[in-house]
Amino acid sequence: MHSITRAGRAVAKIHRVQVHHATVLQPSRAIALQPHSSFFSTRATTSYLAKPGCTQPSSTAMRQTRWTQRFYSTPSDQAGKEASRAYNTSSTSSSTVAELEQLLAKNDLAGFQQTCVSLQTRGSEVSKDVYHYLLKTLSDSPKVFAPLSSESTTPFDPLNSAIGILTDMSREANMGKAAVQPDRDTLLLLLKVAGSKECIESQMDHGWESAWLLVDAIRHGRLPAVMSSDQWELPELNVALDQELWKGMFECVHAAGSSKRTQDFLRELNTTTYLMADQLSRSYDVEMDDQLWGYIIQAFGNNKSGSRLKDILPFLPPISEASPELYATVAEALANTGSSQLAANIIDTLYANHQTLSSISPIVALGRQYAKTGDYETLRLDFHIWQEKGTHTEQSKSQLVELHRNFLSASAVALGRMIDVSSATFKSRQADILPKNILPGMTTPPQLNMSEYREAGYLYRRSSDAWTSIPVADRTVEDYDVMMQIQCRLNLLKPAEWSIEGAEKIIGDMKKQGLKPLHRTYQTLMETFSRTREFGGQKEDGKAVDRVMKVYNNMLKDGYTPTSPQEFQPLLDACFSTYSTSPFAAGLWMYSNQHFGASDALDKVEELMRQTLSSSNSGASSNSETPTLEEVSNIYQYHDSTTLATILAGLAHADKVEELYKRWDALPLQGIERDATLYQTLIGASQGQEKLARYALRTIRYDMLKEQPPVPMTSEIFSGLLNCCVRIQDAISARSLISQYTGEVKKTAEWYGPMVRTCLMTEGMEQEGEFLLEEMKKNDMKMDSTFYEFLMEYFVTKREDYAAGREVFKSFVKHEQDEVDVLVEFKKKNMDPSDQDNIVMVSEKDLARRVERLKAPVVDNLVSRIEISQKSAAMLNLLVMSHLRERTQMLEQEKRSGVSVGSAERLKDAQIVVHYLTGETKKKESMAMQSSGCGCASKSPMIPSPCSSNSPSSSSIPSPSALSSSSPASPKAFTKTSGSTGGQLLFVNKYVLGEYIDACIKEGSPAMLDEAQWALNSVLPRVIDQTRFAKDSQRLRQALESARNRQGPGRV
Any bridge partners for residue 357, and if so which? Predict the structure, then answer.
């Protein structure tokens, strides 16, 4: 560690050169004649400490003329001559501070300036007090030095005059008058002048450079001066850099930089303050206080230097002894460097130990970090902390607007995360292996459960509050862009609740305020129009393209012309229909051809792409002498791999096989490489069509090996080829694929899962599938929820092994519990789950809800641990089916043996699951059951809560029934407030419900007939379409009426 105190040296002997007399207000008249004059002593040097990312402030060449330019006027030469004569005739007279003060008190500015001119010729008699008084006056009232003539148009520069005073003091000291040697107070006054408002305004865009030069000279131990090489050479600064000087330098730099806020300037400012902080933090000679520590911490935080910041934290005074302002600065710096958890802990400590919080800056800095991850809950809590204990000033009010902006950004990220999670689940259940950016509209979230709906509604209300809290005049195009994202994502989640008209209105609001929408704002709206289910999933009529085209034309009017094929992606997506929204249609691709229509507008969109994009590449031509298809179709000029993959997938889904073959075979002739993305797309889109599935297995599979270089086999392509085998029941191709790529298959669920599904669902391969399934269990491969759903469907519907199906359901619950454990562990370690494979980031609220549901010590039944959603709906319905069909087997066995084997319990198990799915409650005694595992377990496995180390014993009193509608563990899977559903039960399968009603009627007891009547009259109308209700329920109504008649006339 080196000292920053500059030790005093013996003053070097100064030899005389020709001196041009300078006035106090004009350092040197020779300056204008010296084009290459330097600022400081010719021995002065400036060094920069190495730091990645730091850039040296503005060009030195620019600064080398800054203080040599004449930004001011002085009294005339005649006045100077008269003053000189007065000095020669009256050498004993002196100007004192009192005289100058008296002139200012009389507002005699002409006399004040005349007296200042006279001081130049009497330099040996001017005391340091007079010089300091002049510097102080320059900082407090610089206008008294400004030219009095109204003809002057050049702004007066106080700093230039201050440097002149300093130069004169140094000259007198070098000539033997040590009493006027510049000292610490001189430098403090000089820094104050440089940071004054008038000085900054006078130098316009150059105030920052001047302040930087001054500070840089002082901290390197040199006196700033306007001197040329043939004039006085000044000695080094013999002043120790103490606490006050460092404060003055930091204040000067920040004041000079307050008027400039461009990105380039902020980098300069941050670099300068970092160099100062680095020098100061490495010194042991300066007594530090909270203010100086604050400057250092702020500098490291603004430069994102987390390691340097953490190095100095141990040297800070304890938080209980330091000022709250210091640790508020620490929290802000930590937040800026990404240490959000440590910053949050400091804010919590300040909140607990102080009555008021003086600064909102750390909360705003933390808000920026929370906005990146969509952590709107924590951001909202910090907002309430400030509302309760914050010191509300004008500055904090402006920063509060920034906090509202952070909340908007966090809401947009959280809603985007909800879409990604829902879409990924929906895509996985469809066994869809298309790349993520290909036909995203196919996997638009089809429905929300109640918890997702409540979260989306909460974000809508809170973001609306934040939006109204930003004054209309302060709203920027970036603010409107974030609101566009929020409105569009809400529409994708629940179009019946949040119409896309709300997003369209934002464009109009921007233009009313005179703002031009951003390019990405238009792109967001176009993407939403292409994906939304507000107008239905079928797009053959071309209306979806027309809606996107309308936004596209408005974008052109605002001057945005597409320059890449990706910008046409929404128009292409709008040409193709989407998957069914039913949560029970995911596996239909294995049994029948899936057809999703395409619009004839595709040709129109491609022609638009060609006209728009080909013109920018018109200069491109082939150097080959052989004619190419470029002369006929310049497809490579207006398509890329993604847009081509989109068209291929759409044509495959629409069963336009011939056109698909034609395009696929033409790609090599058009110079387009058929890469892994294109192969994955074509194979993935072929699994739903029998003819295409055969083509993929007979042709596409082998074309991969013919490419140069050969296309590698990936887990996605492997899964897609195996899905094609399932679709056409081709056991030979399935065995060939598995044996051919045995060496490349990794022991992970991504590879083994498709093999198990193929073997179990292909005739003649069940034994191989069971063997592979055992391999997965032995190697502890992590299965996803979609794989559990497939296994349960296989055991219940194909194998009719109902006990095995219930075991799969238990494994599914355990899988959900393990997933929560992983998320909780990541949260404890303050890690981001989204950075890890197979881990989906969720909000704090969602995680808390999952922990409460899945990790509750005691529940009445196992199904109450499962949240009703598109992921669990099929499994819960299969569980009902399992109970009902096993009951049928038991009834036959009881009929043959005459001994009860538990058929009544199976019906009651089914009753519990049905009531849980509908969110309805029945009398607890009517559903009291023996412990039997799934659907009814009163002694379910007790798992300790993550919040407590004490696990309740098996004799613990059970919690209230999880079927209670008021219980947070059993939300209803329907939306009564939705105009489109009218209370429709989205997650109840009509066929399963019909089977359940039929079983209740056949049971024949009064209680079960009441149950059948409730399900028929209250539940079934909310499951099937009203227009079909009378016809579809006719048989069940007749059966129920017959059963009632058999009970006798007294039965209602």
Answer: 390
CA angle 271, 277, 282 (to 5 degrees): 130
Q: Which of 127-136, 445-454, 801-810 is predicted most confidently?
A: 801-810
Question: Are residues 542 and 601 in contact, defined by beta-carbon separation less than 8 angstroms?
Answer: yes
Q: With b meaning 16 or more CB within 10 Å and e meaning fewer, what string describes 415-433?
A: bbbbbbbbbebbbbbbbbb
The dihedrals phi and psi of 943, each to the nearest 5 degrees, come to -110, 130
Provide the 10 A C-beta neighbour count for residue 537: 18
CA angle 973, 978, 981 (to 5 degrees): 70
Q: Cα 448 vs. chain centroid, distance in angstroms?
A: 22
The structure tokens listed for 453 are: 């709906």
Phi, psi of 162 (to 5 degrees): -65, -40
- Return the percent helix, strand and coil in the chain, to nearest 5: 60, 0, 40
Report the distance separating Cα 164 and Cα 648, nearest Å: 76
* DSSP H or E segment with residue 294: helix 290-302
pLDDT at 1046: 84
Tokens 């809170």: give the residue. 462
**Is the distance from CB of 350 to CB of 328 less than 8 angstroms?**
yes
Nearest C-alpha neighbor of 797 from the set 591, 604, 955, 654:
591
Residue 991: which of 1037, 1040, 1033, 1026 has the closest Cα?
A: 1033
Residue 980 clears pLDDT 50, i.e. is over it: no
Task: Tell me the pLDDT tens digit for each residue of 679-737.
Answer: 999 999 999 889 999 999 999 999 999 998 999 999 999 999 999 999 999 999 999 99
Rounded Cα distance between 996 and 985, Å, is: 16
Q: For residue 466, is pLDDT > 60?
A: yes
Confidence band, pLDDT 50/70/90 cuts, at residue 154: low
pTM for the structure as a whole: 0.79
C-alpha span between 46 and 221 (Å, rounded): 10
Q: Can you give 300-336 as a three-state secondary structure string?
A: HHHCCCHHHHHHHHHHCCCCCCCCHHHHHHHHHHHHH
Distance CA 656, CA 602 (A): 13
- Cβ atoms of residues 323 and 292 within 8 Å: no
Mean pLDDT of 756-774: 93
Cis peptide before 324 (omega within 30 of 0): no
What pLDDT does 61 receive?
34
**Lookup: tokens for 519:** 């390019």
Going by C-alpha positions, the residue among 614, 611, 541, 613 that lies closest to residue 574 is: 541
Compute φ and ψ for 142, nearest 5 degrees: -65, -20
Calculate the average pLDDT of the chain.
78
Q: SS3 of 242, please? A: coil
Higher pLDDT among residues 198 and 52, named by residue? 198
Q: Smallest Cα–Cα separation from 158: which of 130, 208, 120, 198? A: 198
Please check whether residue 922 is in contact with residue 963, taking contact to mean a CB–CB distance below 8 angstroms: yes
Neighbours of 639 (CB within 10 A): 23
Under 8 Å between Cβ of 478 and 401: no
Q: pLDDT per residue over 916-930, tens digit each?
A: 988 875 443 333 333
Residue 101: its H or E element: helix 97-105
> Among 444, 450, 655, 408, which Cα is nearest to 529's?
444
Report the C-alpha gap between 120 and 116 in whole angstroms.
7
